[in-house]
Amino acid sequence: SSGKFTASVNRITKRGSSRLRHALYMAVQSGIRDARKKKTTDEIIARNKRLREFYDKKREEGKPFKVAVIAC
């Protein structure tokens, strides 16, 4: 039943290290960012494909940006 939880106000917990939380958030943002394969081509790929697929899935479910990043 936890997967069907639909609260409107749902905040991230503030327990634990705030520095670690910030580092993980930044790492996920870097992982889902698009990067060019080579400077000479226009082909764009995700830096971390699995993480980007999970992020895109959460966004398609209607999750806001920050909620999807924290889920990653």
Explain the overall architecture.
It is flat, with a radius of gyration of 15 Å. The chain has 3 helices and 2 strands. Helix 2 crosses helix 3. The model has no long low-confidence stretch (mean pLDDT 81). The chain has a two-stranded antiparallel sheet with strand order 1-2. It is mainly α. It has one domain (16-71).
Low-confidence parts: none
Helix and strand element order: HEEHH
Helix content: 40-55%
Name the average pLDDT.
81
Structural class comes to: mainly alpha
Number of helical stretches of at least 4 residues: 3
Span of the ends, CA to CA = 20 Å
Number of strands: 2
Give the SSE map.
Blueprint: H1 18-32, E1 34-36, E2 44-46, H2 49-60, H3 65-71
Antiparallel strand pairs: 1-2
Q: Short description, anyone?
A:
The protein has 72 residues and is mostly helical.
Notable traits:
72 residues; mainly alpha; 3 helices; flat
